[in-house]
Amino acid sequence: MRTVGVEEELLLVDPETGEPRALSAAVLARAAQDDADQDVFEKELHEQMLEFATHPQSSMESLRAEIVRCRKEAARHAGEIGCTVAALATSPLPVSPAVSINHRYQWMAEQYGIATREQLVLGCHVHVAVESDEEGVAVVDRVRPWLQVLLALSANSPFWQGHDSGYSSYRSRVWQRWPSAGPTEIFGSAERYHRLVAEMVATGTVLDDGMIYFDARLSRQYPTVEVRVSDVCLHSGTAALVATLVRGLVETAARAWRAGEEPLGHSVSLLRLAHWQAARSGLTGELLHPATMRRMPAEAVVRALLDHVGQALADTRDFERARTACEELLRSGNGAQVQRELMERTGSLRDVVTECVRHTQA
Question: Which residues of the chain have pLDDT under 70?
Fold first, then answer.
């Protein structure tokens, strides 16, 4: 059974005002003081962000428990220096991002200017084990059309600098400002994948292969495929659902590759349109069906994803849990819908943030 790990980026906020706080260095120092050997929490691009990485898990129940544990630990460390954490993919309140001080991030600030300063956006990355780079690239080639559905499910960033952006996932639109971000063409082989990455690094436009921000890529550190399209999810259960679906997609794609089935040949241009549509409407309107690239109700497209990965999920005994979680999400709404409902009810972005802090730690 393939193992799965999750990386989540959390927003550090004032527990009373909901305003982002540039305190990641202090939180990390507090975590290290508590456990000098801790390798869970990491520095991110901006000082208002804190990242954690779970340990690989085979059971999706164990993975969710690990996500809950890490979120609570992050909140505990943050609380000891006067802030807390919120699983929000953008700050609803206005913010002036503070770029972290190290060589890498300062290089990015100089190279990309305002695009770096505006990248206070928070995502969820899912790692799924693969047997080889060849299998990994075969997976990357075959999951491409389905990733937009994960974006719609996870969408959790409707507000930007104090205003409703009109998008369910505005984070994904900001993320696309990186020159290496987004969907990819079909590679066909690990050799071609690695050659393209090397050519991109050789241009000097990116610092190294860690800045190859494909929607799905081979991890530079682990024997995994890393899927990077999702917003950080408001609820831990949604994060676990996304991870479950990613594992199903990876296994389904690997089986198709071994069976000699070719990947769907949609162009990068069509994939970009599909991702834009998912970012715009989330689960409240229409999405592009991954097979036909024609508009259909979001509910039908989510069910198409479940059908696509159904056998792989059944084999790991995850199908019924994933189906139930999808139905609940379609009924109750993703993070973007929850945030907008809170804003409509309270009229206060501060209340949106402080209420989302509670959801984060539930």
Answer: 36-39
